[in-house]
């Protein structure tokens, strides 16, 4: 099978959380470029409109839905809107996430709760809703959770984030076992540091910083360097016998070189 056929997502409906910026924005464009219909989800719908316009200008199809994954009551309506427009969501990219810097000894309870509400509970309940609807519609599917290199190693002041992402790795394995019989694959991507609009100034003005020294390749990634991994996991043709895996895309940072 040729690559164009292997990664053809025509007929698939993909919902991407946290699609209004960063990796979520890029993930959405890549999936749309390969034929999927996109459900762009984020807290602020107005920020999604520009992305919708870009996708449609390139010949794709997309809708915008309001979704704060920390609010469980918003998850069902987001999937309802997706189904009304395109049908059952068959690809979920659980991308929404936050980080708050605090030393462990002084982490406020509300800060800990905010991180867990989005990075753990939000991922769980969104995946659960997606899977329930796939099963009800008798559809195959792919759930792609976005973990982090910090799910495998830690960094000072980011304990809550690291704990939440480690839980996502374990959640991915747990869901994969239970959903395999329903023909739903669950995998995860664990990126290292990726250049986005949020951190661009920091990395470009601090080329010799300590973070880059922890990465074997001595650089951060461009968002496009996650495209191949995303398409691999999204395509049922490319990764039909793959579930429960977490793929590290970190330039060798995990090894602590």
What features would you describe in this structure?
The chain has nine helices and seven strands; from the N terminus they run αβαβαβαβαβαβαααβ. By secondary structure, the chain is of the alpha/beta class. It has one domain: Rossmann fold (3-Layer(aba) Sandwich). Strands 3-2-1-4-5-6-7 form a seven-stranded parallel beta sheet, with helices on both faces. The longest helix is centred in the middle third of the chain and has 28 residues, at 109-136. It is globular. The mean pLDDT is 93.
Structural class: alpha/beta
**CATH architecture descriptor text:** 3-Layer(aba) Sandwich
How is the CATH topology named? Rossmann fold
Total beta strands: 7
Count of domains: 1
Rounded to the nearest angstrom, the radius of gyration is 18 Å
Question: What is the rounded distance between the termini?
Answer: 38 Å
Question: Strand fraction band?
Answer: 5-15%
Taking pLDDT < 50 over at least 5 consecutive residues as the criterion, the unreliable ranges are: none
CATH superfamily: NAD(P)-binding Rossmann-like Domain
**Overall average pLDDT:** 93
Fraction of residues in helix: 25-40%
